[in-house]
Amino acid sequence: MKATKVPEATIRRLSTYTRYLKELEEQGETVVSSAQLAKACGVNPAQVRKDLAYFGEFGIRGVGYYVKDLYEDLRRILGLNREWRLAIIGIGNLGTALLNFKDFLKENYKIVAAFDIKPEVVVGRVAEKAGKPAEILHPDRLKEVAKERKIDIAIITTPPSEAQKVADQVVEANIRGILNFTPAQLKVPRGFIVKNVYFTTILDNLVYLLQSRRR
Amino acid sequence: MKATKVPEATIRRLSTYTRYLKELEEQGETVVSSAQLAKACGVNPAQVRKDLAYFGEFGIRGVGYYVKDLYEDLRRILGLNREWRLAIIGIGNLGTALLNFKDFLKENYKIVAAFDIKPEVVVGRVAEKAGKPAEILHPDRLKEVAKERKIDIAIITTPPSEAQKVADQVVEANIRGILNFTPAQLKVPRGFIVKNVYFTTILDNLVYLLQSRRR
DNA sequence: GGATGTGAAGTCGTTCACAGCT
DNA sequence: AGCTGTGAACGACTTCACATCC
Questions:
Q1: What is the Cα–Cα distance from B175 to B196, expressed in whole angstroms?
Q2: Rounded mean pLDDT of chain A?
Q3: Were both Cys, which of A153, B23, B77, B174 would link to A177 (CB 3.0–4.6 Å)?
Q4: Is A200's pLDDT higher than 90?
Q5: Residue B56 CA distance to nucleotide C4 C1' (Å)
Q6: So where are chain A's domains?
Q7: CATH code for A84-201?
Q8: Which residue of B has its CA nearest to A160?
Q9: Buried b (16+ CB within 10 A) or exposed e, B14-42
Q10: CATH architecture of B8-77
Q11: Is the C-beta of residue A52 closer than 7 Å to nucleic acid chain D?
Q12: Chain B: closest CA distance from residue A35 (Å)
């Protein structure tokens, strides 16, 4: 057990491990080794052990890890053992998809609000897709609603040109976490955290790899 | 100019640089320094120069880089100077969003096919959103259609449980690039490339950071 | 003068290899 | 005997600092 800073990559992998552990648990497996976990998640066995070592000792030498215990420990470590309340800002195609996307979201994530500059325009689209009338709010109400509904995280799916302005409002509303789907580089004050989901960039990346290996 | 392997992170950043260069060009700027580029993209100036150094010398000492030239050089390096033909497999909420998502996709990406196991079920949804009847094909036709339409990249947006099966069909169709939006760990033979857009994982990551800093 | 290009130093993350438990 | 936990070796990427060139 250390107090060292935990690499970002470690957290990403812990998240992957939990998914696999959940599967194992559903299959009734009780024990798993670092080697097995590593293979399933495409990493080195020592890496698995190192990742866990940042947070304590979870295994039994000569045996492995108890699936259920490790699963629960990891969920606790990652903060997935409590509810996180999300708002989606920018109800275009992507925002709409996310609103309807509950299947992909783990149970501990709850979408509690949706914002768009043109509520009246987008409300129809969401309604027809969700099968019930949806409530879309104007971003000017962010601060008020954030407090009222205890929003933890803002997901930004506006056009890139609007993203920084929205981010400023999010900060103003004191929502500390931002998941940014736009390619814009958001600037936020210390204490706020932005994570980017650059799938455009990842696509570019894929293209580079494809292109550079046909030599 | 070196023949060393280029770090993945470098490619990601080059992609970011191109976006900023495009902006500069539109604003009529002709020259940019590594310091300016670095600031806009949130990295170290030396990093910018190192990234570029993998591919040659693009700047003029004492001056900086010509915006237009660098933009075009980077596009060429990344392989963005030709058309890439995409197929989307799995026309649920996310797949539908991507189909309607042309605004986010650069001009050189073209969606040329959409697949789903239940074409008749999803076709209505896409049609009404796109404003014109859409053609949704059954994945069994992947191989045939891939050849015919020269599909370069498959974007997988099926439920996680179907992802590996679909990936096998993609490989069978000899589509070399896969952009995987599911949390499944896809196994493909050597020569095929998978890139993951784990936004679920990134969300977990954000939660960890939020949770661990409130101490 | 001033900004690039780059070896060298530094930092961070991964893998090895083995001691330590069960 | 077997698998974890971990210091040490390794490797990869980043940052520094300065020589180089316009």
A1: 16
A2: 90
A3: A153
A4: no
A5: 12
A6: 8-77, 84-201
A7: 3.40.50.720
A8: B104
A9: bbbbbbbbeebbeeeeeebebebbbebee
A10: Orthogonal Bundle (1.10)
A11: yes
A12: 16
Residues from chain B contacting residue A8 (CB–CB below 8 Å)? 205
CB contact under 8 Å between B199 and A179, yes or no, is yes
Distance CA B74, CA B11 (A): 10
Q: CA–CA distance from A4 to each of A47, A51, A52 (Å)? A: 16, 12, 13
pLDDT digits (tens, 9 = 90+) for A74-105: 999 999 999 999 999 999 878 888 887 666 67
> Same topology for domains B8-77 and B84-201, yes or no?
no
Name chain B contacts of A186, Cβ cutoff 8 Å. Answer: none
**pLDDT band (50, 70, 90) for residue A1:** very low
Within 7 A of a protein CB, which nucleotides of strand C? 1-7, 12-17, 20-22
pLDDT in tens, B39-57: 999 999 999 999 999 999 9
